[in-house]
Design goal:
This protein is flat. The chain has helices at about 1-40, 50-55. It is about 60% helix and about 0% strand.
Length: about 80
């Protein structure tokens, strides 16, 4: 019975530590969002990309005129 009590107490302590860390990180991210809103209100922010994954090259797509090279046709057998 002592092992079970120690195990449950340990789990509770870990849970509280994770909860505290999440609260701290969440509080800091809200502060950053507030700073971003201030920058957006002043009009000094850049327009966000239309398709960020395509711009990074991790998803198909992109804007017209991005590449001027033509792909070669597939070889025929």
């Amino acid at each position: 019975m002592q092992r079970v009590r120690i195990g449950i107490t340990g789990l509770a302590v870990v849970f509280l530590i994770v909860l505290l860390a999440a609260a701290i990180v969440g509080f800091h991210s809200k502060e950053r969002n507030g700073e971003a809103n201030v920058v957006a209100e002043t009009g000094n922010s850049a327009k966000p990309p239309a398709d960020p994954l395509a711009e990074l090259g991790v998803a198909p797509g992109g804007t017209a005129g991005e590449s001027d090279t033509q792909q070669a046709p597939p070889p025929q057998h």
